[in-house]
Specification:
- This protein has 506 residues and is mainly alpha-helical.
- α8 (147-163) crosses α12.
- It has 18 helices and four strands.
- It has helices at 5-13, 24-43, 49-55, 58-70, 77-95, 101-118, 131-144, 147-163, 167-170, 229-239, 288-301, 310-322, 327-334, 353-357, 384-390, 394-414, 422-468, 494-503, and strands at 186-191, 196-202, 215-220, 263-266.
- Strands 3-2-1-4 form a four-stranded antiparallel β-sheet, with no helix packed on it.
- The longest helix has 47 residues, at 422-468.
Length: 506
C-alpha cells in the first residue's frame, strides 16, 4: 500500500518501540516499588524523587533498603530478595540505564547480609504432587462430587498433570480474565489404529503472552479409564454440545477413517470455538482461584497436611519430565527460558540412593509425596466452639462494634437505614465488609492452627495410646481399595459411560 511522503516523515520523527511489554503482575510490583520510593523521598524531604534516584549512590540505596525493612512487614528473606530485583528494574525504568555492575554486586551482598541478620532464611521443601496423590484425589472427586461437577475438575487435574502448565496458561485469572483454554485450542482426531488423540495448544505462557507461537501437547488414550483425558474431554464436549456433527456417543460408532486419510478431525461448532473449555454453570470461564480453592478443599477432606495447589501439580509433573526428557525438552514443557529456573522444582532427591550404592535395581522413591503425611481423621472444618472463639478476636470485635455503632447512629437519625443518604449507606456497607472479612480471616486462621496442631500432635498421641494399651487407639490402616479397575463400576455422567462403552468396548 502506497503512502505519501508525509506518512514516512511522521514515522521518522516518532520514537522507536524500545520497551518490552511487561506482565500485569510485574507492572503492579513496579508500581509498588515506585510508591515506596516516593514515600521514602517524602520521609527524607526530597523534592524530586526521580532525580534523586538518578544521582543516588550505593550508600543511599542501602539506606533505602534498610528503611524498607524498618517500615514494612516482611518475614522471609526470599521476599526481600524479590523486592531488590524489582527495585533494580524500577531503577532502570527511571534512569534509562542499568545499575553499575559493581554497585549491583555489592548491594546484592548487602541484601543477603540483611536477609541473614534480620529475616528468616529457612526454606522448607516445596510440596510436590505425584501419581500417588493423583490417585487419591481422583478417587475423592468421583466419590464425593456429583458427576456434573466431578467431570471438569477431574479433567483439569489431568491437564495440569499431563502438561505441567501454570494455572494462568489454562484458566482465567484476575490479571488476564480473557485468557484461557478455548475449544479452538483443542483438536480431537481419530487415527488409523482406531484410537483417538488430542492436541492441546497453550498460548498464554508466562513472559510470552503476546507470542503467536503456542506450546502444543499431544495426549493419548489411557488404559485406566479415569486416567484418560480423551474420554473425559469427549464427555465434557458432549455435555456442552460442542461437536459440529456429533450429538451423542452412539454417533461414534458410525465414524470410520477413509483409506486416503491418515486421521479424521472431529470438528467443533463454529459458535463454540472461542468459548472456554472449562466453564462455570453460568457459562463464565472457570478461574485459577476457583480451582485453587477446590484443591484446598480436597486436600483438607483427604487429610493432607498441606494444601495441594496448581503449582504442587506442576512441580510433580516437572520432576517426572526431568527423569525422561532432555534439558531443552524439559525447558520447553515447563516454559522456562533458562535451565536454572528448574532448581526450585528439584529440591527433593527422588532417587533411591541405597539401591544405587549397593548396585541394586534403582527405583524412584516416594520422597516428596504429599500423601505420606496424610491422616484421614484430620479436622476438615471449624467447630462451632472454635467459631465463637474466633469471633472474640480483637479485630473482629473492633470492626463489628464500628459497624453496629454506625448502624445505630443512622437508625437514630433517620429511623431506617434505607432513609439515610447514599454516602452514609456506603460507609455502613464498607464497615460491614470489613467486619465480615475480619471474621472470615479469624476463623480461617483458627482452623489452620487447629490443623497444624493436629498434625504436630497426632503421631505422638497415637504412639502414646498404643504403648499404654488404651482401648480404641488408632492403628495403621491398609491401603485404600483402588477405584481404577476395568469394570467402570462408578457413578459417572451418562455420556461418559457411553463414551467408555464405545472407546473401550466395556
Amino acid at each position: 500500500m502506497a503512502h505519501p511522503p508525509s506518512y514516512y516523515e511522521d514515522i521518522e520523527s516518532s520514537d522507536l518501540v524500545t520497551k518490552k511489554a511487561l506482565a500485569v503482575a510485574t507492572t503492579k510490583k513496579l508500581n509498588h516499588i515506585k510508591l515506596r520510593w516516593e514515600e521514602y523521598a517524602q520521609f527524607r524531604c526530597w523534592d524530586d524523587p526521580t532525580q534523586k534516584l538518578k544521582d543516588i549512590g550505593e550508600g543511599g540505596i542501602n539506606a533505602f533498603l534498610t528503611w524498607e525493612l524498618d517500615n514494612t512487614v516482611m518475614k522471609k528473606g526470599s521476599s526481600f530478595v524479590t523486592f531488590w530485583k524489582y527495585f533494580r528494574m524500577y531503577y532502570y525504568s527511571c534512569t534509562q540505564r542499568p545499575m553499575d555492575p559493581k554497585t549491583s554486586r555489592k548491594l546484592t551482598i548487602q541484601v543477603k547480609h540483611l536477609c541473614n541478620t534480620r529475616l528468616s532464611n529457612v526454606s522448607m521443601p516445596k510440596s510436590v504432587f505425584n501419581e500417588v496423590d493423583f490417585e487419591i484425589f481422583t478417587q475423592f472427586i468421583w466419590k464425593e462430587y456429583r458427576p456434573s461437577k466431578a467431570l471438569p475438575i477431574a479433567l483439569m487435574l489431568q491437564f495440569f498433570a499431563y502438561t505441567a502448565v501454570r494455572p494462568g496458561s489454562m484458566l482465567s485469572s484476575t490479571d488476564y480474565p480473557n485468557q484461557y483454554l478455548r475449544y479452538s485450542d483443542v483438536q480431537l482426531s481419530l487415527i488409523s489404529t482406531g484410537e483417538y488423540t488430542m492436541v492441546v495448544s497453550y498460548w498464554y505462557y508466562k513472559g510470552r503472552r503476546q507470542n503467536n507461537n503456542p506450546t502444543t501437547f499431544r495426549l493419548r488414550q489411557q488404559k485406566v479409564h479415569l486416567h484418560c483425558p480423551i474420554l473425559l474431554f469427549i464427555a465434557l464436549a458432549l455435555r456442552n454440545r460442542a461437536f459440529k456433527d456429533i450429538s451423542n456417543p452412539a454417533d461414534f460408532t458410525n465414524l470410520t477413517l477413509p483409506t486416503d486419510f491418515s486421521s479424521l478431525v472431529l470438528e467443533f461448532k463454529q459458535e463454540i470455538l472461542e468459548t472456554p473449555v472449562f466453564q462455570k454453570p453460568d457459562g463464565t470461564p472457570f478461574t485459577a482461584a476457583s480451582f485453587r480453592t477446590i484443591l484446598g478443599h480436597i486436600s483438607n477432606a483427604c487429610g493432607f497436611p498441606e494444601k495441594v495447589t496448581p503449582y504442587s501439580i506442576r512441580r510433580g509433573a516437572g520432576n517426572a519430565v526431568d527423569g525422561v526428557a532432555t534439558e531443552s525438552q524439559r525447558n520447553q514443557v515447563m516454559g522456562h527460558s533458562i535451565s536454572e529456573m528448574y532448581v526450585p522444582y528439584a529440591s527433593l532427591v527422588s532417587l533411591d540412593m541405597q539401591s544405587a550404592f549397593w548396585r541394586e535395581e534403582v527405583t524412584p522413591t516416594r520422597v516428596g509425596c504429599m500423601s505420606l503425611g496424610r491422616i484421614q481423621s484430620a479436622p476438615t472444618r471449624i467447630t462451632p466452639s472454635q467459631s465463637e472463639a474466633a469471633d472474640q478476636d480483637p479485630m473482629v470485635v473492633e470492626t463489628t462494634r464500628a459497624h453496629a455503632n454506625q448502624q445505630a447512629a443512622i437508625v437514630l437519625e433517620y429511623n431506617h437505614v434505607n432513609h439515610a443518604p447514599e454516602e452514609d449507606r456506603r460507609l455502613l456497607q464498607s464497615l460491614k465488609s470489613q467486619a465480615d472479612y475480619a471474621k472470615r480471616k479469624a476463623r480461617r486462621e483458627m482452623f489452620q492452627k487447629d490443623r497444624r496442631d493436629f498434625f504436630a500432635n497426632a503421631p505422638s498421641e497415637v504412639i502414646r495410646q498404643q504403648l499404654v494399651g488404651i482401648e480404641g487407639a488408632s492403628c495403621p490402616q491398609g491401603p485404600e481399595p483402588s477405584l481404577f479397575d476395568e469394570s467402570g463400576d462408578i457413578s459417572l455422567p451418562k455420556e461418559f459411560n457411553l463414551a467408555l462403552a464405545y472407546l473401550f468396548s466395556i
